[in-house]
TrEMBL record:
Annotated source species: Tepidimonas alkaliphilus
Protein name: Histidine--tRNA ligase
Root EC class: ligase
Binding sites annotated in the UniProt record for L-histidine: 84-86, 114, 128, 132, 259, 263-264
Localization terms from the record: Cytoplasm
Length: 435
């Protein structure tokens, strides 16, 4: 026997029945996004390394420690597996001049990659659903995206999700705050941990996001960005808060919410839960008005968010909000292999009419007997068994047997139906009652 090959650590297979939950969630999210006017965009998984270095920031954790970067063996080009979705969407918008005829609203779904220690809710290959609104500058666009996420929680029946909100102002205001932070933390250098010392002169804003309990009091006393905002930035943030208030969307202003990417300014936000332990952020985003120009385009505003699919599914599971796995409408029982020429056309017609039919077929051990096939049919969860026995086929018929007691079900006892009229009687198996 050959040596078994397993998946890369932190990169997981998703098989039934779990994959059905993914499909269900993606369909629900896609329908909501389309009602908001967002349209799908699909970008490559592999991008130029420079896209993320320039777009995310050279001293961010993602670029410094987490990105899968490599050299193309054919031409020496420096490439990376995408660690997030926004930079690739903006690159595509710039490359293809997608804003030439006005603002755009996009959404994406797909895998991202970060080289970090795998743990529950944090994997090396993980999946994101993200939205980006480009060309829209006002606070109403920020609020539209926040409202979209809030509506999703409502549609999914999710509880225990809280909105945290902050503003990072404009670049000049952030620069003034940065200097104030450096000066403050320099005075307390002896209280900084190793990570904070490393970030002191490269990205001091990230020190505010420390999870080290020993530094919490120090961080609480640090200068606040809110105190460095000019009139325009304050007005933008006040308008965001007022529009959220007008819709009854609750939030908490968190001055320590900074996000981990350099492209953010003005509004930033996170939806957090206490139901998942340390991995409590299920959706996060903000405004990034400078990113389009940073990636070579004509200056244009942008705002977006992303949510982790694995974390959201874990939250839905914890709150018992996931649907039962799908089951077939019918299970085809075929006791004789000579029946296939007549069985297959009938099943094809039933499926074309909208019926989900699981067909019993021969395994390596041969074709199972009737009793074993009925056990398989029952285990499948199917509502009906379609019995293609010799007596039925001799009369051009198939027996339809209910496998579940369903009050008001379409068929409550075993009946026969014509093989050549499968498309006509398929509706009986989908209907709540039969005449």
């Amino acid at each position: 026997m050959s040596e078994r090959i397993t998946a890369v650590k932190g990169m997981n297979d998703i098989a039934p029945p779990q994959s059905a939950h993914w499909e269900w969630l993606e369909a629900r999210v896609r329908a909501l996004l389309q009602r908001y006017g967002y349209r799908n965009i699909r970008t490559p998984i592999v991008e130029p390394l420079a896209l993320f270095v320039r777009g995310l920031g050279e001293v961010t954790d993602i670029v410094e420690k987490e990105m899968y970067a490599f050299e193309d063996r054919l031409n020496g080009e420096q490439l990376a597996l995408r660690p997030e979705g926004t930079a690739g969407v903006v690159r595509a918008v710039v490359e293809h001049a997608l804003l030439y005829d006005g603002p755009k609203r996009f959404y994406y779904m797909g895998p991202m990659f970060r080289h970090e220690r795998p743990q529950r809710g944090r994997y090396r290959q993980f999946h994101q659903i993200g939205v980006e609104a480009l060309g829209l500058a006002g606070p109403e666009a920020d609020v539209e995206l926040i409202t979209l996420a809030a509506d999703l929680w409502q549609e999914l029946g999710v509880q225990d999700v809280t909105l945290e909100l902050n503003t990072l102002g404009q670049p000049a205001e952030r620069a003034a705050h940065r200097q104030a932070l450096i000066a403050y933390f320099e005075q307390h250098r002896d209280q900084l941990d190793e990570d904070a010392r490393r970030r002191l002169y490269t990205n001091p804003l990230r020190i505010l996001d420390t999870k080290n309990p020993a530094m919490q009091a120090l961080v609480e006393g640090a200068p606040r960005l809110l105190d460095h905002l000019g009139a325009a930035s304050r007005a933008h943030f006040d308008a965001v808060c007022a529009l959220l208030d007008a819709q009854g969307i609750a939030y908490r202003v968190n001055p320590r919410l900074v996000r981990g990417l350099d492209y953010y300014h003005h509004t930033v936000f996170e939806f957090v839960t206490t139901s998942l332990g340390a991995q409590g952020t299920v959706c996060a985003g903000g405004r990034y008005d400078g990113l389009v120009a940073e990636l070579g385009g004509k200056p244009a505003p942008g705002v977006g968010w992303a949510m982790g699919v694995e974390r959201l599914l874990a939250l839905l599971e914890a709150q018992q909000r996931l649907p039962a796995p799908p089951v077939p409408d019918a299970y085809a029982i075929v006791p004789d292999e000579a029946a296939w020429p007549r069985v297959l056309p009938a099943l094809r017609a039933l499926r074309a009419a909208g019926l989900q039919v699981l067909m019993h077929a021969r395994t390596a051990d041969g074709l199972a007997g009737m009793k074993a096939q009925f056990k398989k049919a029952d285990a499948s969860g199917a509502r009906y068994a379609l019995i293609f026995g010799a007596d039925e086929l001799a009369q051009g018929m198939v027996a339809v047997k209910p496998l579940r007691a369903e009050p008001g079900g379409a068929i409550t006892e075993q009946v026969r139906r014509p093989l050549d009229e499968a498309a006509q009687w398929a509706s009986e198996l989908l209907s709540p009652s039969i005449s």
